[in-house]
Structure formats: C-alpha cells, structure tokens
Q: What sequence folds into this?
C-alpha cells in the first residue's frame, strides 16, 4: 500500500508541475512538451500490442495517420462539428486496426509483422496517391481550430487533458484481467489456449484498443500542428516509435513515455545542430541492447522495486522462505 | 465420458499415432503407457485439440469434439497439464493460476476492474489444495522443478475440468515430491470427483494408482485392460515390459 501511495504522490506532483510549466516556459518549449505527450500516447498505444501483447506490430504509425487524416477530412471536407470529428477519428483508426489485425493475428510472429507492415504501407500509398482527397505529398495545412484550442498553450492543456485521461484508462486496462491475460498470451500462447482463452480474439481486441489510441494521438497531433502530411503514415515513424518502446522499456507500463521524451528531445535539440542525429539514436540503441536490455524504465523499476520481471535472486527467495 | 475411436495422425510422413482407441469412464483413473515415441503425448494433444487428427473421432460427454480449437475443448471440461513445464515464467504463482480461473469465469474481456481483486478465493483454494499456498507471490520461473510441475497441475485445475489429462506428472521429480504428487492425484479424484487420464514412465506409480491401463506401441493401442491383465499380457511383455 505504501508503494501505491508513493506512486500516487509522484504522479500528482508531476501533473501539478506540467500544469504550471506553460506559464513559465517560452512558447517553443510548451510546444515541444505537447509534442512529447502526443508521441508518448502513440508509443504507449503501440506498447500495448508490442510490449504486453508480444505482437510484431511493425507499422503502427499507419493508424496514427488514419486518425489524423480522418479528423482533418471530416472537419474540412465534410464540415462536421469538431467534437464529432474528434470521436470519429479514433474510431476510424480502430476499424482500420480491426481490418488489418483480423488478417495478421492468423499468422505468427515475423509473418504477422511482414503482413502488418505491407497492409499499413498500403494505407500510406492510398493517402500519398489520392491527391484530390488528401492533398497527396503536400498534405493539408493551416487547418482552422476552434477558438478554445487555437493558441499553443491552450492546445497544450487540451492535449495534456486527453493524454492524462488515456494514460489512466490504459493503466486500468493494464491492471485488469484483460491486461494480465494479454501478457499471458505473450509469454505462453499455447498454455493460454489450453486453459480456454481464445488467443487470437484476445490479440485482435488488443490491436483494436491500441489502434484506437493511436488514432487519438493522430487527432492530438493535428490539434497541435494544424496540418497533416503522408509522413504520419510512413514506416519510418513506425520504426521510431518502436525504438521508443524499446528504449523506455517495453515490459513496463510507463516506459514508452520515457522513450518518447528521449527521442523527441534528441530530435529537437540535437537535430538543431546536426542532421546526423539519427546516428546518436543508433549509438544509443547499441548501448541499450548491451547495458539496459529491459529499457530505461525497466532498469529503474528493477533498481528500486527489486526485479519484478526476473526470477528472484537467492537472497529474496531466502527472505521469502523465512517470512 | 471420453471416447477415442481410430485416431490417426502423421507428421511429414512419420506416423505418430496410427490407430488409437480409448475409453475413459466418469471418475476413473486411466493410464496410457508405452515406450518412448509410442505416441502418448501426440494422443493427448489430439484429444485437447492442439493437433488436428487425420482420421478418427474424439467424443466427450456424448459430443463430438474432433477438430475443435484447444480453447473450446477446454471450455467443454478437459484440462491438461503438460509434460514439459509450460507455465507463465514471468508471472507469480498466484497470477499463473488466476489466469486460468479468470478464463474459466469468462472474465478475460473485463477491462476496467483490477485483476488483483478478482477470482482470489478460487485461486487460493486451488493453491492450498496443491500445497503451493506459501509460495503465491514467488515468480514462477524461480520455483524448483518439482514445484513447477505442481503449478502446472494447479493451472490445469484453474479451469475446473471434469477430465484432467496429466502428461507425465512426476517426470523429473525427486522421490518425496513424487509421493506428494501421487497423494495429490488421489485427492483430486476423491475430493474433487475428477476423472484422470495420464501417462507415466514410472511403472510403480502407474500400477499403484491406475484403475485401467491402455498400452500403446508404435502408434497403436494394443490393449486396454485392468492393471493385472496388462501385467500378465504376453504382447505387452514383449513390446514394453521387456520380460521374455
């Protein structure tokens, strides 16, 4: 119980700081923070399937793009009210996730990944080629946002609100039977079906949930940037968020947030000095694989909470026996 | 309760099971014996749906279950404990069994209530029954081999089966662990009213607990009879017991 109270306080203080920050920071930093939240949400949604579900969802950004484009197109072309578009976009991403996932869960590991990346790239190709509808390579820019989220700081608060909401919802799912069984299907699918779990259906549900949140991240991106472009669905972005999960620790819940913060900061601040900033990511990855195989967050959790993810050491076992 | 008729399965031309017949009545303890490679494990996997049979039928509670996926067969009331330890290594002992209980209670899709508050009583009851209650919070991967085998059985019990299939339940166990396991098997039939189908290499164990024995040799079931009859059967002696 003490641990939970402590965690609660840490998150409370963190949230208070995040609420106050935009009042003190220059606009650019507020923008970067908001971008970190958007990216974190995307990375966390990916981690549901990759980290907890053990599925090779290689092209997750496709659903980020579907969310963003659906939001923009329903807003500008169909002229629907903003809130309706706001709800429609993640739903569209979830439908795309369902359709693609339905085929993918029938395959195992790498084959899943290969089919997923091809079907995801198909979505990119559609957006890229359908010039009349999507603006093709140019994308759509200068989208008018309602008054209450038109400034950077108001957009920041809007994004923070939905980030925190999604964070809490995903946390509840993480702790629920659904989450526990999803991790069980990752560790031992054969055992799961032997105790009566429909593994494929469970995985597909996880994909639909994850793509829903990816779509929501896409919407929040538009709120911040007021533009969309095909790069949002490009596989390079998928790779980047995959790295965020790895870097932050994909067996942990909040790890992807750490990973997203690191990558976005690197791209912004190191990218300003040199265009070879991806080289730094490369070096980071090599170091990571050797020294922090469980990611930054995985390392911290192991350090402060005593290795929940690994077999206990002899010492803890003895302590357990004597208690 | 369970009827297997003329089951056949080959892998890439290798005939693992060529013709297997088996009957298990309610409340019975039936053993399947036979030399290595006789097709015992394959037979079990055909019953639980992990493999699809090429030919033959599996009938459980008067209902044909041939070719159903494993999760549906489990829901009909067949549980299995695997020969090679097949547990959730990263999870605690408690969570291992809880997963099975949650699946049995059809709570796998529950999204917003915390898992730690659900199915606790049922899970603890099973762990108390098998004698792992003191180790509930240990990570299962760190248990001794014997305890992992017991946990394996506990997971199978989590889905509250009517028929429990045990694939070499005591393989690799120390002597005292083995006798504890035999105890456990007896208690499961007496107290829980379980029907048990198992295979085992330890002949003392087989003859001491099995009510009936089916002998497999090169993928065929050659005899199905009481332990005494099996012991005195000439064909069995030649094929398996090594007595001339």
A:
């Amino acid at each position: 119980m003490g641990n939970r109270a402590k965690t609660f306080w840490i998150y409370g203080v963190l949230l208070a700081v995040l609420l106050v920050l935009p009042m003190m920071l220059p606009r650019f930093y507020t923008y970067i923070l908001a971008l970190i939240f958007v990216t974190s949400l995307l990375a966390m949604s990916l981690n549901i399937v990759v980290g907890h579900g053990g599925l090779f969802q290689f092209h997750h950004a496709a659903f980020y793009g579907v969310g963003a484009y659906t939001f923009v197109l329903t807003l500008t072309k169909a002229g629907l009210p903003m809130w309706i578009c706001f709800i429609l976009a993640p739903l569209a991403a979830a439908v795309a996730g369902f359709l693609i996932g339905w085929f993918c869960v029938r395959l195992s590991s790498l084959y899943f990944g290969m089919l997923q990346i091809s079907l995801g790239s198909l979505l990119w190709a559609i957006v890229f080629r359908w010039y009349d509808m999507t603006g093709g390579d140019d994308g759509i820019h200068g989208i008018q946002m309602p008054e209450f989220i038109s400034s950077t700081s108001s957009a920041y608060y809007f994004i923070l609100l939905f980030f925190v909401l999604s964070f809490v919802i995903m946390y509840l799912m993480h702790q629920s039977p659904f989450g526990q069984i999803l991790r069980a299907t990752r560790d031992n699918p054969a055992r799961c079906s032997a105790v009566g779990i429909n593994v494929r259906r469970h995985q597909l549900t996880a994909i639909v949930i994850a793509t829903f949140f990816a779509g929501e991240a896409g919407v929040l991106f538009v709120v911040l940037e007021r533009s969309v472009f095909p790069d949002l669905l490009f596989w390079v972005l998928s790779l980047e968020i995959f790295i965020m999960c790895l870097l932050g620790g994909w067996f942990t819940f909040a790890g992807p947030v750490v990973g997203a913060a690191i990558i976005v900061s690197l791209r912004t601040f190191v990218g300003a000095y040199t265009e070879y900033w991806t080289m730094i990511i490369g070096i980071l990855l090599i170091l990571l694989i050797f020294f922090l195989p469980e990611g930054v967050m995985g390392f911290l959790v192991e350090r402060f909470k005593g290795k929940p993810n690994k077999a206990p050491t002899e010492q803890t076992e003895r302590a357990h026996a004597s208690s | 309760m369970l009827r297997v008729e003329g089951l056949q399965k080959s892998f890439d031309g290798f005939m693992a099971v060529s013709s297997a017949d088996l009957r298990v009545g309610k409340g019975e303890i039936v053993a399947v014996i036979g030399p290595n490679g006789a097709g015992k494990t394959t037979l079990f996997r055909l019953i639980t749906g992990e493999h699809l049979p090429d030919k033959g039928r599996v009938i459980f509670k008067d209902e044909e279950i041939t070719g159903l996926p494993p999760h549906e067969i489990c829901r009909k009331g067949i549980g299995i404990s695997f020969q090679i330890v097949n547990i959730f290594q990263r999870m605690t002992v408690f969570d291992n069994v809880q997963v099975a209980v949650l699946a049995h209670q059809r709570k796998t899709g529950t999204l917003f209530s915390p898992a730690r508050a659900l199915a606790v009583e049922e899970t603890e009851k099973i762990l108390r029954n098998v004698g792992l209650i003191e180790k509930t919070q240990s990570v299962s991967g760190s248990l001794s081999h014997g305890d992992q085998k017991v946990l394996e059985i506990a997971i199978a019990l989590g889905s509250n089966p009517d028929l429990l299939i045990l694939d070499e339940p005591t393989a690799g166990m120390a002597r005292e662990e083995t006798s504890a396991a035999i105890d456990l098997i007896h208690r499961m039939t007496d107290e829980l009213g379980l029907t048990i189908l198992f295979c085992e290499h330890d002949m003392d164990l087989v003859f001491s607990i099995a009510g009936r024995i089916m002998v497999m040799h090169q993928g065929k079931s050659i005899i199905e009879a009481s332990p005494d009859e099996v012991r005195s059967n000439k064909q069995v002696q030649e094929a398996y017991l090594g007595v001339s």
Observations:
- Chain B has nine helices and ten strands.
- Chain B has a mean pLDDT of 88.
